[in-house]
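Structure first, sequence second, as always.
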């Protein structure tokens, strides 16, 4: 069966017997791609990059909307319009064509807008139309006069974002007596080694979702750093109990609107949604009525359900740890994988460090160690929905 294409992951992406893991992190995801760390399983087949500093940075850049908002109502003959303060106002330079998104009025800017005063020629080629307070005015091109001069230059800078790598350690050990004892269940050292790796990957997975970017004792020789996870880094957070919603209700119609206007507004047309069991049940109800969810077989070892919409494809995975973590049963975390990256400090990706015991200890002590962090290349391409408990 051909492998389903998946945006943001390298190669064919299949976790098969020919896949050669480079470290214990990839070994774990090869053994248990549907285990307790599915985000890390997908990241291991996606974009991973070493960093030579525990604080890593990236530049986020995107095209501006170039939309301004009128702060008051104006008759059709008023040529100076006061705008709400905003960074988008600077794009309204002399010669810019401006359209009122509500009335359709076409105007042309006659002087560069440096603050909130927009000076324009009103109602070009049309009837007299007024402006209502709160009307959105958007840039609709530029019209230069014949033999005109070069317009005012405009530019915009990228925003610098940063995060930290976090040192994860999980120790395990057995006494030499237990190590030498023949057990019917097999080697106790091998057993605790496997369990420790599962706990280690579970710790990293939880930090990738719930961690907060913090550095303590940063000016000392022994600082502690924690990486910022998705829930504390993504700015697009939709709460089903506040704002435009109440009572934990997001209807099928409202969810469609979320997909079109928010979740797929930026970034890829294929995203992964990690959900709790309550959200999975709600999506199943929607799917039975209309969407017909389909299983994405052979998709990098991860079981996904695809919901196809006009806006894009949402690939759903019921996250096993969302059953364990309080408050996540009614949550959805939408991830755009081409804009997410696993970062590890050079030479300190997941590894097994053996024989950490002291010289006089009658036993063995080992540890798994990873120094890694999560990098969001863009912010608004990801989203979080919380407290969603009902459809109607």
């Amino acid at each position: 069966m051909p492998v389903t294409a998946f945006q943001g992951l390298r190669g064919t992406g299949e976790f098969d017997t020919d896949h050669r893991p480079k470290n214990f992190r990839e070994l774990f995801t090869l053994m248990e791609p549907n285990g307790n760390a599915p985000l890390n399983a997908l990241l291991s087949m996606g974009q991973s990059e070493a960093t030579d500093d525990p604080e890593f940075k990236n530049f986020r850049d995107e095209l501006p909307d170039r939309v301004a908002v009128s702060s008051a109502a104006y008759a059709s003959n008023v040529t100076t319009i006061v705008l709400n303060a905003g960074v988008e106002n600077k794009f309204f330079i002399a010669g810019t064509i401006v359209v009122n998104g509500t009335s359709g009025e076409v105007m042309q800017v006659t002087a560069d807008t440096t603050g909130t005063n927009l000076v324009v020629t009103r109602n070009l080629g049309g009837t007299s139309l007024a402006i209502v307070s709160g009307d959105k005015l958007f840039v609709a091109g530029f019209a230069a006069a014949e033999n005109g001069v070069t317009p005012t230059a405009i530019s915009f800078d990228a925003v610098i974002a940063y995060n930290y790598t976090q040192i994860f350690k999980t120790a395990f050990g057995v006494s030499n007596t237990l190590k030498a004892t023949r057990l019917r269940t097999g080697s106790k050292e091998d057993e605790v080694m496997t369990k420790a790796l599962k706990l280690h990957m579970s710790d990293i997975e939880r930090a990738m979702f719930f961690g907060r970017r913090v550095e303590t004792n940063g000016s000392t020789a022994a600082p502690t750093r924690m990486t910022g996870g998705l829930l504390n880094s993504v700015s697009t957070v939709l709460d089903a109990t506040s704002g435009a919603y109440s009572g934990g209700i997001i209807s099928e119609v409202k969810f469609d609107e979320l997909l079109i206007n928010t979740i797929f507004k930026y970034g890829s047309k294929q995203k992964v949604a990690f959900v709790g069991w309550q959200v999975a049940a709600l999506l199943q109800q929607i799917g039975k009525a209309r969407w017909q969810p389909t299983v994405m077989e052979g998709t990098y070892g991860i079981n996904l359900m695809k919901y196809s919409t006009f806006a894009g494809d949402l690939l759903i995975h019921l996250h096993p740890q969302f059953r364990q973590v309080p408050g996540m049963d009614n949550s959805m975390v939408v991830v755009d994988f081409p804009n997410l990256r696993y970062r590890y400090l050079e030479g300190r990706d997941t590894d097994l460090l053996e024989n950490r015991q002291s010289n006089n200890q009658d036993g063995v002590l080992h540890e798994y160690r990873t120094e890694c962090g999560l990098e969001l290349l863009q912010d608004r391409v990801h989203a979080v929905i919380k407290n969603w408990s009902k459809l109607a």
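Margin note: Residues 24-60+162-386 form one domain.
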